[in-house]
């Protein structure tokens, strides 16, 4: 009797939530949704794209003829830096103000590019932009959330390679849970939670996807999505702007390899949502418990056409997965990528 054969539950160390793993269900036949075949790679420039160099956006603003990364204020920002409703009166239905700002990050001028296909120099420029935005916005806001939604399957409004940053005057719910769990771990055990995860994952090896001197990429023991990965800084780093030049260069290498493994898994441009979790800037220097990390959440399950749906039991009870994280890691490691 092993974890690979029978239903069991696993606990997410970063949130405290449990999830159900049902390995035997991976053998069931599939007659559900199958996505349409992936569209061919877009051209280098699309005159109808709101993000391409020189094009006019929906707001009427004209993009410069940018050659690297290009950052601009989101024309349809989810957070505004002033105004909004005030805090509601005490009682049953609570409200509170939600202020902040949002920006769009065009990773490259090439409309048909992806992070996985960027050359090393372009990828390093994206990383520098992430670091600069974390530092700059973090000086004014409680939390800075950098993320990318890639692919129509994950709700991306444009195929142009881009991400976003939402900075807020509050610490969002999921980050608050990670904050509490990591703080409690340090208080109870005297060690950094993700530092302990790194040591255990390196010792076991079965969930490791990529590793170098500064970074570890694993399918976490508690992964919810089939091929979810966690990218953790091996150095004692709490925020992106704290990364040394060597760690930033190493991040470009590990990121390129991880994303190319994703694309090679089902021989398609893997859709995903990814995002960085650095220590909320509202904490100031009270960050000894925190370790910088990024979550990668791709939806594909069995092929380029079949994805995981979080429905039914997942929405009403708790997260459930069929493929074990160990099996997912084994399949990702088996993908051949160029050195």
What does this structure look like?
- Helices cover 24% and strands 18% of the residues.
- The chain has a single domain, classed as HIT family, subunit A, CATH 3.30.428.
- With 339 residues, the protein is an alpha+beta fold.
- Helix 1 (120-138) crosses helix 4 (245-265).
- The protein has a 9-stranded antiparallel sheet, sandwiched between helices. Strands 1-2-12 form a 3-stranded mixed sheet.
Outline the secondary-structure elements.
Blueprint: E1 8-11, E2 18-21, E3 70-73, E4 100-106, H1 120-138, E5 143-150, E6 162-168, H2 173-189, H3 193-204, E7 208-211, E8 215-218, E9 229-233, H4 245-265, E10 272-277, E11 293-297, H5 313-316, E12 319-321, H6 325-333
Parallel strand pairs: 2-12
Antiparallel strand pairs: 1-2, 3-4, 4-6, 5-6, 5-10, 7-8, 8-9, 9-11, 10-11
Helix pairs in contact: 1-4
* CATH first level: Alpha Beta
Largest sheet: 9 strands, antiparallel
Going across the major beta sheet, what is the strand order?
3-4-6-5-10-11-9-8-7
Strand content: 15-25%
Question: N- to C-terminal separation?
Answer: 38 Å
Low-confidence stretches: none
Overall mean pLDDT score? Answer: 93
Count of the domains: 1
Radius of gyration: 20 Å
Structure annotation, total helices: 6
CATH topology: HIT family, subunit A
Name of the CATH architecture:
2-Layer Sandwich
Q: Could you name the CATH homologous superfamily?
A: HIT-like
Give me the strand/helix succession.
Answer: EEEEHEEHHEEEHEEHEH
Please identify the oligomeric state.
Answer: single chain
